[in-house]
Design brief:
The chain has helices at 11-21, 82-97; strands at 2-6, 35-42, 45-52, 55-63, 67-72. The chain has 103 residues and is of the alpha+beta class. This is Polyhydroxyalkanoic acid system protein (PHA_gran_rgn).
Length: 103
């Protein structure tokens, strides 16, 4: 599954925001039982592993000049929920790219 989220930020700023907020990813997975780990094999690439409800999903997030591309390997058993997962990635990914609110 591939989900692209457009942005108009410098790549360094996108990287900074994703690094600062990647711990929030598990909060957006329904059921509250997800474990998410991330890594940075390159400055413009984040690896992501999600373990939720007995499923392990691995993927990469590529930071490009004008978009962030989430690539997640979905097993066939979950292909029927791909539109739901893609929508959640789009929505939550966009929130992660937004500037943090000043409370």
């Amino acid at each position: 599954m591939r989900v692209a989220i457009p942005h108009d930020l410098p790549q360094a700023e996108v990287t900074r925001r994703l690094k600062e907020r990647s711990h929030e990813i598990a909060d957006h997975i329904p059921g509250g039982m997800a474990t998410v780990t991330t890594g940075w094999p390159a400055d413009d690439r984040m690896s992501i592993n999600v373990n939720a409800m007995g499923n392990d999903l691995a993927g990469m997030v590529n930071i490009e000049d004008n978009q962030v591309v989430f690539e997640i390997a979905l097993p066939m058993a979950l292909s029927f929920v791909e539109p739901i997962i893609a929508g959640a990635i789009r929505q939550q990914g966009q929130k992660m790219l937004e500037a943090p609110s000043e409370d």
